[in-house]
Amino acid sequence: MIPPSELNSNPDNTALSAEDAEQLIPDLSTRQDLDEYERQNILLAQDWAFSTRALKHNDPLDEIYIRELHRQMFKDTWKWAGKYRIRDVNRGCSSAEIITRIANLLGDGRYWLSNKTFALEEIAIRIHHRMVGEIHPFPNGNGRHARMLADILLTKHGGERFTWGRSNLVSSRTVKEAYLSALRQLDADSNNVAPLLNFARS
User: Fold this and answer.
1) Which of 55, 58, 78, 89 lies at 20 to 30 Å from 45 by C-alpha?
2) Cα first-last separation, the chain
3) pLDDT reported for residue 137
4) Residue 150 class from Cβ within 10 Å (0-12 exposed, 13-18 middle, 19+ buried)?
5) What are phi and psi of 194, to 5 degrees?
6) What percent of the chain has pLDDT over 90?
7) pLDDT tens for residues 123-144?
8) What is the pTM of this model?
């Protein structure tokens, strides 16, 4: 079992409660083991999400799909995969607001797409930002989930997936900080989408 202090050793990540940490499925002993186990789980989820059949039949702006994507990404790692958090954390809305905030975001996303309010890449970035920053719906894995959701939306509508700094944000501290800095700039100014969009394309 990974000690809670090691699970929560990265201050940039949402801290797991003791109850959340107890829901780890595999018997792992280090944070590095967990990162690799999650990475393998996410690679399988990518195969599922980006298959021709999935892209054709699934709607990334559907609330059920939001949860199913997270479940696919972490189902072999955490028992709470695909379930919204039930406690408040240092980022995002209160747990009681999650369902309403997600419904509002998905409604906005559908409106933006149908009315071409923004370019496709900006729509994907805005959905990503609100999912990870304003809502932060899951106990953990929110950034990875929101990035994959943005890529799925792009691909489904004929765009190309973002490169997100061309690095593993979990293992690269420098790239992770550039990502977080871009998120903070959009937090501070909802019209300042350029830094996050530029990072996503880099």
Assistant:
1) 89
2) 37
3) 98
4) buried
5) -60, -45
6) 84
7) 999 999 999 999 999 999 999 9
8) 0.95
Q: How many helices (H) and strands (E) does the chain have?
A: 10, 0
**Residue 181 DSSP SS3:** helix
pLDDT of 89 reads: 93
Instruction: Report the C-alpha gap between 184 and 195 in whole angstroms.
Output: 10
Residue 39 burial (10 A CB sphere; 0-12, 13-18, 19+): middle
Fold exhibited by the domain 27-201:
Fic-like fold (1.10.3290)
**31: which 2 tokens?**
């944070």
DSSP code of residue 58: -
Residue with tokens 């719906």: 137
* Pairwise CA distance, residues 21 & 8, whole Å: 10
pLDDT band of 171, cuts 50, 70, 90: confident
Task: With both helix axes pointing from N to C terminus, report the angle between 194-201 and 120-129 in degrees, rounded to the nearest 10.
Answer: 100
CA distance 59 to 121: 17
- Lookup: tokens for 140: 């953990």
DSSP state, residue 14: P
pLDDT band at 34 (very low <50, low <70, confident <90, very high): very high
What span, in angstroms and rounded, lies between the C-alpha atoms of 98 and 135? 6
Side chain identity at residue 97, one-letter code:
E
Whether the CB-CB separation of 157 and 113 falls below 8 Å is answered with yes
Whether residue 115 contacts residue 109, with contact meaning beta carbons closer than 8 Å, is answered with no
Q: Report residue 34 as tokens.
A: 């967990």
Distances (CA, A) of 155 to 58, 59, 151, 160, 169: 12, 12, 6, 6, 21
